[in-house]
Amino acid sequence: MSEHKTVLLREAIEALNLKEGDVVVDATLGGGGHSLEILKKISPTGKLLSIDRDEDAIKRFRQRIVGKDFAQNIILVKDNFSNLAEILRDKNIEKVKGILADFGLSSDQLNDKERGFSFYSKGVLDMRMDKNQKLTAKQVVNEYSEKKLADIFRKFGDEAYARNIAKKIVEEREKNEIASVEGLVEIIKTAVSEKSRRKKIHFATKVFQAIRMEVNSELLSIERFLKQAIKSLQKGGRLAVISFHSGEDRLVKNFFREKERGCDCPPEFPICQCGKKSEIKIITKKPIVPSKSEIADNIRSRSAKMRVVEKI
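Below the sequence we write its predicted structure tokens.
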């Protein structure tokens, strides 16, 4: 059974503007909350393709829909959403009416101590969304140079103490390999100020986020996914994406603006020379965020932002 609380559930389903018979993609199955609601909208003749690179997520969802009438309306695929175009070709799907992607980590993953995603767990440093891939958090922490560690802490975590934390990690790993979550948390604790240790947001939050994003190549995957998603939509189809990190949201926002603008010729050109045309219409001029009641019910939703576009 999934422990995950789906973020922006009502808002996401409404944004996709679905109807019975539509073909839809849930690019990030996770706990399955979005997929279940999509199935209710498009059944009995619609088709949903749900993707996740976490095999456990797919297994949990399969168990969840056993005996349901709409079980025949879903195709479950273990893969990275950055391979969307290839997945659609493999399933003989040309264009789809809607695509949803939630870039957040599910509570099922965070609460699994063996995965090492959460700084509250007491497991090993793993953080792989796909447990078959080679790179782990343990390798990042013990093998990356001090400079590279500091760079990813800044780039993916906006961590103010990036250099100091990276330095402390290198010092400690020269004595003993850093293999556990609690071991890394203690190192981070010694590298930040007393004030930071007393803040509402845990002092290890940004570093753990940054390492997870590095292990799973998250920004690169998102960039690849967005390009393929726009091409995969039929005219009038919608793409809704939910991000939780400023770097993710900035990437999405800039990509959508570029695709809506079309022509990228210098303003002084009287006539367009590049030939690029607008591909989408931005539906959400400002991102949709969780309500106060949703945040009160699920604190992990507090940083969520959803942006929606429509293919023209």
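The first strand starts at residue 23 and ends at 26.
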